[in-house]
Amino acid sequence: MGGGTVSATQAPGRAVNLPPSSAQPAGPWARLRHVRWANIGLAAVVVGYLAWSLVPVLIAFVFSFNNGYSRSIWQGFSTQWWTGPNSVFNDPTYYNAIRHSFELAILAVAITVPLGVSLSIFLSRWRGVTSKPAAFLSTVPLVIPEIVLALAMFFLVTKLLHFVTLGTTAQIAGQVTFILPLVIVITRGRLASIPTGFEEAAMDLGASPLQAFRLALIPLLAPAILASAIVAFAVSIDDFVITQYMSSTAATQSVPMLIYTATRGTATPALNAMATVMALTTVVITSLGYLLYRFVSRREQVPQFAREETPTVPVLVEGTA
Amino acid sequence: MAGGDVQLKNLCKKFGDVVAVNNIDLQIASGEFFSLLGPSGCGKTTTLRMIAGFEEPTLGQILLDGVDLVHTPPHKRPLNTVFQAYMIFPHLNVYENIAFGLRRQHVSRSDIRERVGDALELVQLQALAHRKPSELSGGQQQRVALARALVLHPAVLLLDEPLGALDAKLRRQLQVELKALQKRVGITFIYVTHDQEEALTMSDRIAVMNDGIVEQVGTPREVYDEPTTEFVADFLGVSNMISADATPDGSGACRLRVGDFTLRATVGEVGSRGAVRCVVRPERVKLEPYDATGESRVPGIVEHLVYLGSATRVVVHLATGQTIQSLVQSDGMELTYGQGTAVQAYLPADAVRVLRSAGQPGVQLGSGDGDVLAGGGPGEAGHPSQQTIEGNVR
């Protein structure tokens, strides 16, 4: 306004224009979006973390192709630890450990998932007075350190319960004890979001309570059932503490146990090959599980429990009364 | 469909110490469109859930065509429900949702195809048979829920605020459709709603519920025009409430002292004596020039006017210190009064209805005047309860 005159057309125009800052989202982090180094920093942390956790794994994988007995000095490429007389598959100890680990994992999944799902259905659909304390108690093993649980179980098995002997039975009992709460936590979370109305609708349409569970609840619960199976499998195959405490002979040695003891002694790159086999199988199985999970929950892009139209409070038009 | 006669006898439901449904007696005729109307928490949904079998009555009987259903589990009751949130199974498509009940009855494949087809046609969803529920709009989901229940040819259809989740325009449209559908299929509908307009439009009869009890049962016209309790008068439409001192004059009428003025009432509980509450609908309040004389007139000053198009709402501050509403129909003429004009409010004797007061049969014992009012309108906080004459605008 250098000239000192304000034209009539300018003033309203200026009043209408909002300052550009008002269009930006509010909140303490809104400004960070525009700072480029924040993006760079975030990327660096992510890449750094991935490198830190994956590069050693890759190195271990690479050393399984070492042409020599060292697991730290590269002596040239060879597949002797993968095929042939020295290979991991030809060593009964290694082969047995892999087989035993998978046995334990499959059994753990087969027991914890049906048991945990039924328990959580019972806990969330049962209105009894003890359901809340029971729900709380069922998750207690989650916060008890595994080593404490293992010691307690060891005492239980060796001194009190003589029908459970150390070995596969005790290992399964131990793993089930601490995997079950995980399954319960996962399925209860999902159950809480499923209104009881679906079971009621099923019963209303003539389904018996059991059919209502099978036909209305279980399909809705499927993603959680699958997720808990994946978690149970991964936790079981990775478990060391309880599996170690509950083991008896070399026949009940799992892969983590073998790796732990072997690294203390004189291990060959066959150990690296075995670790790679375990890692790859776990990755493949959990990925398959994840894909299945995506398939099972694919129809849920639209949250079926939310209403599409916002419920409107009936407004009586004035004068129509 | 023959049958479908429902009778509720002394039905009670307690949740812990809370009495949700308090001694309900209702007789619902076969083929009737019967509504349970009331504010949230009045026990209407609990009543419906007891009929469906999802809640067990603490006391009482539920008779369907004379047979007590109380100990029959929900899946064996010959009635079906349309749920408020529809509860369409998200893992099944429209066709399978509708076929769900038929499959439980082991109906043959070809019969299922035929009956599901008929049901789809009934709700005009033939084109969407293979859609997943997540691909349907709210109105379409509502129709699937309806078809899923009707395909089983129930004796009674229970509907729990089935239009509650829809927007106002769609709701109006579906009200008409639902009523027409009920006429066509001839099944007893028991319809739960908190929307008085919905209940008035659709029902053959309405039970107005409050605080676990049935306040009044009647046709839409009866409950609107002839409310017997203050709650009913207040819940349905706009009402002027008047506190007065009644003396019966022995000739089927009643004299009412309101402050320094006298009114006459010829409808309602005209035999009452002592403190009573009366209701006058705004459309029955006539406004006359200040020099008009005669009984049943109270002078006042026009406080403000609200032009509504087809009518004008006039709020008058009466000489008794209270305000009263009058609804004046537009007849093309300009009103002879404006804000600040002194007028006479004429309350014709046949427009002043004396209500049943607390303590009389039908009203819960011990519920004071203020309690009845506090339970009044949904979402209407700070309800004035001590005014002698009120204009309750909703």
In short:
Chain A has a domain at 90-298: MetI-like (MetI-like fold), CATH 1.10.3720. Chain A has twelve helices and no strands. Chain A has helices at 10-16, 36-63, 92-125, 131-138, 140-143, 146-160, 168-193, 197-204, 209-238, 241-245, 255-264, 269-296.
What's the SSE blueprint?
The complex is a heterodimer of chains A (321) and B (394).
Chain A: H1 10-16, H2 36-63, H3 92-125, H4 131-138, H5 140-143, H6 146-160, H7 168-193, H8 197-204, H9 209-238, H10 241-245, H11 255-264, H12 269-296
Helix pairs in contact in A: 2-12, 3-4, 3-7, 3-9, 3-11, 7-9, 8-9, 9-12, 11-12
Chain B: E1 6-15, E2 18-28, E3 33-37, H1 44-52, E4 59-64, E5 67-68, E6 79-82, H2 94-104, H3 109-122, H4 138-150, E7 156-160, H5 168-185, E8 188-193, H6 196-202, E9 205-210, E10 213-218, H7 220-225, H8 230-235, E11 239-248, E12 254-258, E13 261-265, E14 267-268, E15 274-280, E16 286-289, E17 297-307, E18 311-318, E19 323-329, E20 342-346, E21 353-354, H9 369-374, E22 389-392
Parallel strand pairs in B: 3-8, 3-9, 6-7, 7-8, 14-21
Antiparallel strand pairs in B: 1-2, 1-4, 4-5, 9-10, 11-12, 11-15, 11-22, 12-13, 15-21, 16-20, 17-18, 17-20, 18-19
